[in-house]
Amino acid sequence: SSQKATILRVLRTNPDCTASELALMCSLNEVQIRKRLPDLEREGLAKPGIVRRGLNRAEQTWAAVVTGEAI
């Protein structure tokens, strides 16, 4: 869908985004973002992560999966 494409475009240039940050950058609401992220993960296009921000404050983040990387 075009929403998925938009989310992936943003994740490629802004890794480690929260759903809230993605919603702002994609001009979508957070519910739409949260519905699409698990689909992107199942398709192997996005992966979740955890980032610590501030004292003992962890947030779930998302990044695009980079394919074709040399190991």
What structural keywords apply?
20% strand; 71 residues
The stretches of 5 or more residues where confidence is low (pLDDT under 50) are none
| Helix content range | 40-55%
Total strands: the figure is 2
- Put simply, the count of helices is 3
Beta content: 15-25%
Strand order of the largest sheet: 1-2
Q: Sheet with the most strands? A: 2 strands, antiparallel
| SSE-based structural type | alpha+beta
SSE pattern, N- to C-terminal? HHHEE
Give the overall form.
Answer: globular
Mean pLDDT: 89
What oligomeric state best describes the polypeptide chains here? single chain
Distance between the termini: 31 Å
Rg over alpha carbons: 12 Å
Characterise the protein shown here.
This protein is an alpha+beta fold and 71 residues long. 46% of the residues lie in helices and 20% in strands. It contains three helices and two strands. Strands 1-2 form a two-stranded antiparallel sheet. Helix 1 packs across helix 3 and helix 2 packs across helix 3. The longest helix has 13 residues. The relative contact order is 0.21. The mean pLDDT is 89.
